[in-house]
Fold this protein.
Amino acid sequence: MFQGIVEDQLMTPPSKPTAFARKRVSEKVPPLGDLQQKTKDVVKRSQDYILGLQKPEGYWIGELIVDTTLVSDFVLFMHWKGEVDFSKQSKCVKHLLDRQLPDGGWATYVGGPSELNATVKAYFSLKLAGFSLEDVEMRKAHATILRLGGIPKSNTYCKLLLALFGQYPWKYLPIIPVEIILLPNWLYFNIYEMSSWSRAMVVPLSIINHFKPTRYLPPEKQLHELFPYGTEHQDFSAALDRDFFTWRNFFLRWDSTLKFLDSLPYKPFRTRALKRAEEWILKRIGPGCDGLGAIFPSMMYTIIALKTLGYTDDNPVLQKAVNDFNAFQVDDEENDDFRIQPCFSPVWDTAIAVVALGESGVAADHLKMESAGEWLLSKEVRIRGDWYHKNPHPENSGWAFEFNNEYYPDVDDTFKVLLALRLIKTKDEARKKEVMNRALHWAISFQCRNGGWAAFDKDVTKHWLEDVPFADHNAILDPPCSDITSRALELFGRLGISRQESFVRRGLEFVRKTQQEDGSWYGRWGVAYIYGTWLVLRGLEAVGEDMNQDWILRGRDWLESCQNEDGGWGETCAAYEDANLKGRGESTVSQTAWALMGVIACGGARRSSVARGIDYLCRMQEIDGSWREDYITGTGFPRVFYLKYDLYRNSWPLLALAEYRRAVFSRN
């Protein structure tokens, strides 16, 4: 089929704030001669800057900057454990107060409105830290929380944290029976039908659900005032739909049934299920794993579950779990700020940096490229992880997002690493080609029934699961998406894989079917439609699609219609909630780079929109070769959780400038 393609094609030269009014785009186009010299200088400064960021081990890593919820969670977690580091707590308080909005609430992204769950958590953290309702910050937050509906309107995971302190009744939370771990894989529903990140939370939460380890607070620390007047003792059970036969009603009735069974003294499978859940967790937090799923929420719940199971502070397992969890802390003394990261991103950041450097002209045998290649090869995952339950591919491979997360390699990272490795000459090329072929086949095997690729698993797409009562975090599924599928197409094209291969044809069909009416594509893992549209156009061009087809040009035209007056592009996270905000937002360098690469992929490198966008990137570069970016352009869970990748502001502009220079000046 395509065995050997990697070997033949490895070193082939690269191929060619809340509401926003639509801004008029200036028609002033910078002279081509000026851009030629500007881009040459900007590219060189950027290369030097990024090369200077590489760690001695060979990788790159930028901070993952998120909203205030993780800092709030950390304060609550310390109080639940009864082990408060008052120095860190004071830093957390400053972090929260620095980000409080004028109306008293807290947002989930820069420029966003107050969000109920983030505000409830911040308010509770401040109250545990010693603030009273009489403090002006608390009065303002209190008013905003009640305006947004109060505690009863918060989501399940917020209410669960409150229940751990006796501030919300456990009986009104959706039950997560620990027996779920015993359901066989052949059953229509089992834990492997949920997304990997949901699974990593649900298993420890099922243990917590059994023990309900509540820490009771003195009266002055409680949250009675966050219930709308007269509602604190009402029945908070979720209301049934009017129609009798709906998935929501089905699950709500099952929830009631399971709660009744849970109240009975006889639970024949409970002990066995608790043991199985404990073993499941221990296997995934041992050597080679930096915590369960290597992500903050599941690692926090894991520590709570282990302590609830009786693990003492001197237990090596618990100590490792706590150390892995504490590693996410960022004590930024220079900026007088204390932050929490949700995870680490070295593999992802390294792959993107390598592609940007390689495509911009850094030699494949450059010592720093070689060092990056060796580090990436050392991070290939050879463990048979959770993915195997849905995709019994015979050989283990792939890359995870983080340093060590062997049970959860992901498809998108694997595609990106393969794109990077083709631009690196390593000491042992035969070994590299072997790894690449193995990983390529592994990643292809994850193609879903509809032709697309998802992030971690194959065919985790049962939409009825979205009505499970504890699934209100908008992330219980791992559906195929246009952005990851298009990165797959880009890889296939760069490696010279024939577009006649069935998996390529099916990927192309998926992408075409997912185009929006206005010509754009939805971006699941980046904000938002600019991200999705760029990746689709880039993938189509790489795989050899005719870029002059009407449906493709509609994507290009949509991108151009979003250009701001300053020449850049930007899109607010609010576009995930309001389609009228698609493509609208203050200009950012990463989103400008994405849009530029999308237009260039359509053969539009000499279009005036591109010249203005390139000029914008050149103008925005700092003296040291870096760029600044204040807004969030990465997505964790749409409408719920967003990520600011700190290296995006440097790697993506370099790649866009490289694409532009190759397309316009390569013959000059």
